[in-house]
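Appendix B. One record, verbatim.
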Amino acid sequence: MPKDEPGPPGDSAARVLTVRGLRVAFGKAQVLDGVDLHVDRGECLAVVGPNGAGKTTLLRALSRLNAGSFEQAEFDGRPLPGSPYDVVMAGLVHCPERRRLFPGLSVRDNLELGARRLRKAADSRAEDLDRVFTLFPKLKERAGQSAGTLSGGEQQQCAIGRSLMGRPTLLLLDEPTLGLSVGVKEAIVASIQAIQDTGTTMLLVEQDVNFAFRCAERVVVLEHGQVAREGATAQIAADPYVKQAYLGVA
């Protein structure tokens, strides 16, 4: 069975997230209109599309930060919890757009806040800190520094590291390259690939389509609040419409 097609009921063990008929409206504006998608265990799914397509709204609806209606919403074999707190405690961790760090706290304190989901002992938190510091050596150098004094790229690393401290079942990454230089984007690509190597399942929302294609095994193209195209990354990258509209290739 192709990976981008819904599986039979017996396939649920491989499915971390299943969403059917997601709708989100703000007043009379219908932002998401019947979105269907799924994320398989261990994969990175990228959602791409133009500004205003509903990409960030999608992640916020999954995190229960925006109200939305679902025909079906299952996470890790159970109904998706109804509150942001319960969503996080279930293992769905959202790394938001524009980082949302606590600028007056140290890098270490920001990271350790991410471990509170598991309420782990200090030695377990130390193990996870070591993993994050191995992934992002600059954060180790700046562990005692206020997060607000970090560069944009370092703040993004700190935000991703904080999310990883909770050992997420599914990591939602919202625009991790926003406002970053080309060189810093390369470092973020390398870090996401390293996170993939650990088996972490990810749902990545990105404006930079080339970046998304380098990170994801499968891609959803979101336009006007609906899924316009879906498939393996190579298939979507070769689509003539996608090449012209998103990659600037005639």
